[in-house]
Sequence to fold (596 residues):
Amino acid sequence: MVLKHLVYLAALARERHFGRAAAACHVSQATLSEAIRRLEAELGVPLVERGHRYRGLTPEGERALTWAHGILADADGMRADLTAMREGVGGSLRLGAIPTSLPVVSRLTAPLRERHPAVRLAIRSLSSREIERDLHEGALDAGLTYLENEPLRGVRRQPLYDERYLLVAPRASRWAAGASVRWRDAADAALCLLSRDMQNRRIVDALFARAGATPEPAVETNSISTLHAQVRDAGLCAVMADTWLHGFGVPAGMVALPLVEPAAAQAVGLVWRDRDPEPPLVRALIATAREALAPATA
Amino acid sequence: MVLKHLVYLAALARERHFGRAAAACHVSQATLSEAIRRLEAELGVPLVERGHRYRGLTPEGERALTWAHGILADADGMRADLTAMREGVGGSLRLGAIPTSLPVVSRLTAPLRERHPAVRLAIRSLSSREIERDLHEGALDAGLTYLENEPLRGVRRQPLYDERYLLVAPRASRWAAGASVRWRDAADAALCLLSRDMQNRRIVDALFARAGATPEPAVETNSISTLHAQVRDAGLCAVMADTWLHGFGVPAGMVALPLVEPAAAQAVGLVWRDRDPEPPLVRALIATAREALAPATA
DNA sequence: ACTAGTCGATCGGCTTTTCCGATCGAAGGT
DNA sequence: ACCTTCGATCGGAAAAGCCGATCGACTAGT
Fold:
């Protein structure tokens, strides 16, 4: 079996198109087509739904793809590992992070780059689900995401901090009177919340629900910067993670009050693929994380 | 990179000889030599200590070998998985087992073969350390070994039963008087024990030590059948695992008495390589083990 | 010290695999 | 009915893989 053919299979699954997949692999469409055919012959199973158009992988193809992702990740890991032994940790680390963790990422990457100046970083803001998926597809080396709210499979983890929630409200509003706000009360505010496809929102909804309330947001968005802007410029209230406020400050004219009853916290941490051995860059990141950003740095 | 080259590397590390490794791979020595050279060129690191004789792998080579074992195991797993999807679980399952667990193996393999008649089994009696090593070298699919006494790394586990220890003594001896024997007292008997390279012996030694005693065995052996024979024919006492006695019975004219103070037990279970996805045969074995031989079947 | 034998590297040539450009044929949209 | 898109296929060129033979260096035995 040829490793390259697995690359072609992965590309085909990703691009869902023979021509584009071939282009992405810098080969002709004929080459890719034949490689898939060979792979099918060798494994003795059809991998793609045959027809005059790409219609997805067969169940066997999907299964093969899972294996292929693992094998390719290992092959890359081996290369990176040996390179690291020769000339120190280098190359490119692809890190996915949930939006609320973005302000924290630099606290992680700064010491990493200090130790290993040759490392190049690619940081992508992704949802927790995208992080999990891309980790398994080998499109990501590590992620910064929620550890507990929704199950994570096939990954190892290093807790880093707890995310807590605050209500950001206009200084003039009635919410600004006390030192904290109850979730139940916050539900009545004119809210700007993240959209429901984001786990942060699902967490917040669950907390509202635990307080017996159902928020009816005036504005929904899938971007935290939008959230921030809405609060600052439109005078709405928002539920924000403390990390975000630490990183970017409380908008002028607004106050941030801890949300209580329940005063819940979500564990956030580093995750990476559950494979041995670990690629050198990932190992370096974990070591850095453990030392530079031990838990209780919230 | 070509998967075949990794096979050659693994063979070379195993055989420690270019010619033999080549023969094991059914290629000429020239082919294998060149393949290693290519691999080194591609990875940019020397993998074997160069000289006019094989002198082992370089540190980079050892590292590469670890990755190679993983990648090759995955490639095999993929093939087996797809074959299983097509024509059911089949192929050959290589199972390693510590000697005291051998009587139990059949209770595991019988239901497995009943469900999957096409499966062929290769059962090897190995020490717990060999099991761990071969598992990682891809020379074994699963193992039956001690789970707790000495650390196991990079494996998943399914506890199956607890191993308990009995003193087998001549019916006429003073030990046969009571219903049990204390470790401290047993240390005074004329003993036949396993040799110190076996974990079972290390466990037994530790239990003697906990009772403040140091056994001075009259006979040491690395084979449990020898142990059994010595007890039966030479009239010595022996510390045996209950599984062995259940499997082969108490030698005629002897009695088996539980060893107490402490009445310790060692957990024994199934282990397999910590990788996702699991090969179909391994999965089938685990499922069978969980159902057919749940814990507390001692 | 010499010799025979072993071991791994290397060379030249052969075979197989891989890759590409071009073309084909089916399906879908207009 | 016509045109476009998509993937399969073909034939030839390039590359890689493999082998037998040979070389050079070390080793063990005399």
Summary: Chain B has eleven helices and ten strands. The mean pLDDT of chain B is 86. The two ends of chain B are 48 Å apart (CA to CA). Chain B has three domains: 3-70, 78-161+267-292, 163-265.
